[in-house]
Amino acid sequence: MEQFYREGYRPPLRARLRHRLGHDKGTGPDKARGETAAELMTFPAVTIGPHSAVVYAMRLMDEHGVKRLPVVDQDGKLEGIVSRHDLIKVFVRPDADIAQEIRADVLDRSLWVDTSHVEIAVHQGVVRLTGRMERRGEAQIAARMALRVNGVVDVIDEIQWNTDDNPGWADQ
């Protein structure tokens, strides 16, 4: 393993020991000896489309053991790269940003009902919805939609309602 390294490169002691003890789990040729990008790359390339969900990107990275995914359009043209760091930022958003998105995108824009009496509190990604809405079904939809906002860890639904529009629904 220690022969012929370019420009004096010598792998760290841990890598040399793993190699000598037979603990290298890599596939293909020994990547420490790679001299070209082709010898170092992951093959086949694992890519993702620009409109794919964040969760899907995370699952792909985990499944294939890669830290970055090239983002390609339908023709295979590279549009960018998404990294694990990029994905983590989505889930460690400030609580104020999460509350603002729930208010603007879920309650005010998506439901098309009066949500002015609903209050949102967020602490470490846990959302607490309180207040009152007209119908039970609308309150349940609001809580479920809030749970889908990136960065939300859990939703505590304490919204009360005036009309039980579907008494057959089980409390969830």
Automatic annotation (TrEMBL):
Residues 41-98 form the CBS domain. Residues 94-163 form the BON domain. Keywords: CBS domain. InterPro entries: BON_dom, CBS_dom, CBS_dom_sf, Diverse_CBS-Domain. This is CBS domain-containing protein. It comes from Planobispora takensis.
